[in-house]
Every structure is written in C-alpha cells, then in structure tokens.
From TrEMBL:
<dbReference type="InterPro" id="IPR008271">
    <property type="entry name" value="Ser/Thr_kinase_AS"/>
</dbReference>
<feature type="domain" description="Protein kinase">
    <location>
        <begin position="33"/>
        <end position="323"/>
    </location>
</feature>
<protein>
    <recommendedName>
        <fullName>Serine/threonine-protein kinase receptor</fullName>
        <ecNumber>2.7.11.30</ecNumber>
    </recommendedName>
</protein>
<keyword id="KW-0675">Receptor</keyword>
<dbReference type="GO" id="GO:0048185">
    <property type="term" value="F:activin binding"/>
</dbReference>
<keyword id="KW-0808">Transferase</keyword>
<keyword id="KW-0472">Membrane</keyword>
<dbReference type="InterPro" id="IPR000719">
    <property type="entry name" value="Prot_kinase_dom"/>
</dbReference>
<keyword id="KW-1133">Transmembrane helix</keyword>
<dbReference type="GO" id="GO:0017002">
    <property type="term" value="F:activin receptor activity"/>
</dbReference>
<keyword id="KW-0479">Metal-binding</keyword>
<dbReference type="Pfam" id="PF00069">
    <property type="entry name" value="Pkinase"/>
</dbReference>
<dbReference type="GO" id="GO:0046872">
    <property type="term" value="F:metal ion binding"/>
</dbReference>
<keyword id="KW-0723">Serine/threonine-protein kinase</keyword>
<dbReference type="InterPro" id="IPR011009">
    <property type="entry name" value="Kinase-like_dom_sf"/>
</dbReference>
<dbReference type="GO" id="GO:0071363">
    <property type="term" value="P:cellular response to growth factor stimulus"/>
</dbReference>
<dbReference type="GO" id="GO:0005524">
    <property type="term" value="F:ATP binding"/>
</dbReference>
Length: 349
C-alpha cells in the first residue's frame, strides 16, 4: 500500500520519510558492475556510465542524505506499465557499503547522447529532429500522467506528477527519441486518497510555475500535472531556440529565462520575473516565419499560461506536435504551405 509519513528534508528539498521496501527484484546480491566514468552530477549525487556483464548501463549513486530520492525513484519505476519506450528503462537497485559510508545505487539503461539540455548546448536540430524529440517527450510525460486501469498485460497504474520536469531530466536515445528520467521528487496519486504530506515548493527554480513560486498550489492531482505542463512549455522553447527551421542563424543555446535572470537565479528573482512581471522566454519573430514553428510557439505559450487551468495536457501537446510532423511533407524548404491550406485539418496519408 502506498502511504506517506511525516515531512523530512534532504538538501533543503522537502520530501517524505522512507518506509520499508521489498528487496530489489530480481534479488541477486550485488551485481558485478564496473563504474567507468562520471557523466553527470546533480543535487542527488552522480550518474556513472558503467559496465554490467556485457551491457553498458547507467548507475545513479545517491549519498545517504539523499536516500529518500532513491526510495521514491524505485516506487515510481516499480509501478505497473512503467516499462514504456519514453520512460527511462529501470534495471535494479542496490545498497553498497554500511552506515555513513552507505551508497544507494539506481541502475538504468544508458543513453550516450545524454540529457536534452546537454545535447542542445552542443547541437542544433532540424525541424524533423525537433518534432521527433518533442513528440516522444510529450508522449513520455503523457504516459507518466496517465491513470491506467488493470488490464491483461499489467496491473493498475496511478497518475504520477514528475515535479522536476526540465531538459536535464529528458534523455535522448540514439534514434533521437526522448525518455523521461529522474523521479526523485515525483508524486503518486492513488484514487480516493489525499496526496499526503507534501510541500509545494520543490523542483528547479528556473522551471517553477507561477503558482509554485507564489506558494499558492491547490494540492490536487490536476494542479500538480499542470505544474509539469508549465515546465514542458519551457522545454519546447529550448528546442525551438536551437531549431534550424527559424529564419536566419541559430543562436547559441540558452536556458529558459537566462536572458532575464542569468544562470543562477534566486527564488526572489524568479518570483519577480514570472509572477509579478509575468514574463516568459522571448519567442522571436524569426520563429513565426515557419508554419510549423509558429504552431509550436502557440503550443508552448498555451503550456506556460499564467492560468494553470488553461494549460494544455501532455496528450494534447503530443497530438499537436505529431500533426505538425505529418504536415511536414507539404512544407516548402522555408516552411510555407500552399495558399489556403488549413493547418488544423488532418493530412491525407
């Protein structure tokens, strides 16, 4: 049974106390894993590229003070229906060492391209590549948010809110499809149960929705899902900013709001920018010269709407991007459609 206990803290991020977990499954003792190189560092510790038998895997190592994130990630990965193309593939967990030297390992699939954030820093993307990334990312978020009834293949899956959605937590596979990762702050919504003792102001400041920055969250399932969708709008902006479909040269990669608040904003900086001034990342006019990009601009703006109830769902974002991608064969090199074309009409295949 899923239940939450009293509030605890790790690294000043509110979270929940652990409760007993079943042993890792399948439980084979410690796996013969060789750590090869550190690929990323975050508030939780480090992610390593590692060798497990003949496979390359990722090992996320949590120090003891971040054990709760490790516990939460397992709970999410072990839910029914989480073995999904656009969710990072889970392999297992291990505890290594004892007492204060203990480390908590999360073993997952390894993706050489790394996070979307790091990829966009080093690469520009074509219209086709951008659609591929955006559609698969939205599909992963849609699956996470979805409540799935018990069926022949698997049990009941409750809705899950990510609560730290950002381009660093979207990983790219070799075929440039995306998968969602990092569930250390995620919330599970069991029907008929309150979401438990939780704290609204978690996540990464830069990606916090206005209602999170204000501390004015309605603690319902839909409210938490809409917070994820605000962040999704910002990630779509990051993608568009590095897309070659825009007119003119593609600018260097910037984080959302980097122009407005720099690289290390305080909570107060974000509150002033997003809540009081109601600013959003700048959507350039050169993006609106491309018929597909202009539709994506509309989508991102509807995701980051100040009114949480007006935001798009992940399934709506996925369907919109998929539609634009299917329209692509009818686009000229400059992205213009023949006169009189209805861009909302389903293309004939």
């Amino acid at each position: 049974m899923y239940r939450r206990k009293r509030l605890a803290h790790f690294n000043q991020l509110p979270t929940i106390e652990p409760h007993p977990l079943p042993p890792p499954s399948p439980f084979l003792g410690l796996r013969p894993i060789q750590l090869l190189e550190i690929k990323a560092r975050g508030r939780f510790g480090a992610v390593w590229k590692a060798q497990y038998k003949t496979d390359t895997v990722a090992v996320k190592i949590f120090p003891i003070q971040d054990k709760q994130s490790w516990v939460t990630e397992q709970e999410i990965f072990k839910l029914a229906h989480m073995d999904y193309d656009n969710i990072l593939r889970y392999i297992g967990v291990e505890k290594r060492g004892d007492n204060l030297q203990a480390e908590f390992w999360l073993i997952t699939a390894f993706h050489e391209k790394g996070s979307l954030c790091d990829f966009l820093k080093a690469n520009i993307v074509t219209w086709v590549e951008m659609c591929r990334i955006a559609e698969s990312m939205a599909r992963g978020l849609m699956h996470l948010h979805e409540e799935i009834p018990t069926n022949k293949s698997d049990g009941y899956k409750p809705a899950v809110a990510h609560r730290d959605f950002k381009s660093k937590n979207v990983l790219l596979k070799s075929d440039l499809t995306a998968c969602i990762a990092d569930f250390g702050l995620a919330l599970i919504f069991q029907p008929g149960k309150p979401c438990g003792d939780t704290h609204g102001q978690v996540g990464t400041r830069r990606y916090m929705a206005p209602e999170v920055l204000e501390g004015a969250i309605n603690f319902s399932r839909d409210a938490f899902l809409r917070i994820d969708m605000y962040a999704c709008g910002l990630v779509l902006w990051e993608l568009a900013s590095r897309c070659t479909a825009q007119e003119g040269p593609v600018p260097e990669y910037m984080l959302p709001f980097e122009e407005e608040v720099g690289q290390h904003p305080t909570l107060e900086d974000m509150q002033e920018c997003v809540v009081q001034k109601k600013l959003r990342p700048i959507v350039k006019e050169t993006w609106r010269k491309h018929t597909g990009l202009v539709a994506l601009c509309d989508t991102m703006e509807e995701c980051w709407d100040h009114d949480a109830e007006a935001r798009l769902s992940a399934s709506c974002v996925m369907e919109r991007v998929a539609l634009q991608a299917r329209l692509l064969p009818r686009l000229s090199p400059l992205g213009s459609l023949p006169p009189g074309t209805d861009i909302n009409k389903e293309p004939t295949m």
